[in-house]
Amino acid sequence: MEELDALLEELEHSTLQDSGEYSNPAPLPKDQYSRKESAETSDIPSVQDDTSPLQVQLVYTTNIEEPHVYSDIQEPKESLPHSKTSAAAQLDELMAHLCEMQAKVIHALGQAWHPEHFICSHCKEEIGSSPFFERSGLAYCPKDYHNLFSPRCAYCAAPILDRVLTAMNQTWHPEHFFCSHCGEVFGAEGFHEKDKKPYCRKDFLAMFSPKCGGCNRPVLENYLSAMDTVWHPECFVCGDCFSSFSTGSFFELDGRPFCELHYHHRQGTLCYGCGQPIAGRCISAMGHKFHPEHFVCAFCLTQLSKGIFREQNGKTYCPPCFNKLFQI
Hints:
By secondary structure, this protein is of the alpha+beta class. 25% of the residues lie in helices and 15% in strands. The strands form eight sheets. Strands 1-2 form a two-stranded antiparallel sheet. A two-stranded antiparallel ribbon has the order 3-4.
């Protein structure tokens, strides 16, 4: 400031001197002096009396050689600008320097900074007029701010710079939150979690939901539980005739449900006489099983209760009928 005041005082002094040089009146040209003197030395006739007319003698103050009385007017010469004093030049230089300094001031975090002093609090690189992030009153360049404070993706572990997706108590890039089996990004149907991994509905049901004992497809809604597994209601039917169990009872064979008829058929316990299952006592004869009441003579239909019979062409006969029919 003292240097600036001294320059201003010197400039004012030099300006006053310059104005004094131009305050003195400029000398008249020589021809004007001649005109004035000529006018004073010209003979003017004296006045004789008040009544006599006066004669006027016109006297030219200059010799006129041209046929006209007009003189040439010289065009004004362009004056050169006054050179600045050293003090004025220094002042201009100082003011330009001050303006340059003001133009390079950075206002950030409620303070003013030299550009070279406004730096990242972590890497110490100059921020200047570049974008920055503020945390706890400190400035950070974008790279260090994201590395230090931004949430990280649970899949790639990189900082999340834009949109963040929160799921399973973790943060994710939206494009990195996808099914662990098929790799498809989740849509409006959402996701299912198993062993801390996300799955789409299709893969989750295919991999982890209980399977129907009949069709081996996932059981999603209504189901029946039988033979230590689950079934779609429409899949729990007889393994041979595919009829449902209207009475609620069924017979199991080799892990499959059967109606009573087909269960006994597979077991070989259908009565050879009536074709119905044998639930109690039975008679085995000729490779078949019979209800006792259905083991009869093929001719007289008498029950062969004593177990004595004769066979002819796959039929049973009591001895009397056999003798009558086939005795030679």
